[in-house]
Automatic annotation (TrEMBL):
Cofactor: Mg(2+)
Source organism per UniProt: Methylocella tundrae
UniProt-listed GO biological process terms: AMP biosynthetic process; ATP biosynthetic process
Name used for this protein in its record: Predicted NTP pyrophosphohydrolase, NUDIX family
Alphabetical keyword list: Hydrolase
SUPFAM superfamilies: Nudix
Biological classification of the source: Bacteria, Pseudomonadati, Pseudomonadota, Alphaproteobacteria, Hyphomicrobiales
Keyword Hydrolase: yes
Domain Nudix hydrolase residues, every copy: 1-149
GO molecular function: bis(5'-nucleosyl)-tetraphosphatase (asymmetrical) activity
Amino acid sequence: MSLRSAGVLMYKRMDGQLFVLLVHPGGPFWRNTDLGAWSIPKGEVAENEDAETAARREFAEELGAMPAGALRPLGSVQQNARKKTEAFTMEADFDATCISSNLFEIEWPPRSGRMQSFPEIDRAAWFALPMARQKILPGQQILLDRLEALFGPDGGVN
């Protein structure tokens, strides 16, 4: 069974460049990983839920604020054999220093019998496209290409 997720690639234009908002996964497994670990805010689409609604909900759950404004489809990416992500983009400015993520619980340390809670997202940041290409998960890099194809590297409309 494949998993379906949806997310928002938020962007802003600044100093003649496009910047994108990416999030870093929380928890002990990603603590010391930076390059190739960041993602768009995204999550699973519930049964009978449309992808745009799920993308907005997941953004709010991971960052603490519902994105307002029109979403533009960026298409889907196959992240791995089981996971397909439908992405949307929107222009907005978001304070990445004030996030409030939902929590998940896992046994940590492994086989210790102790359950610990961790934020799903431990930080968010704005990156210019060249740096975003280094930070983002390899399976999501095509979303940056699609955004750039829509607007160009300087944020102008193509």
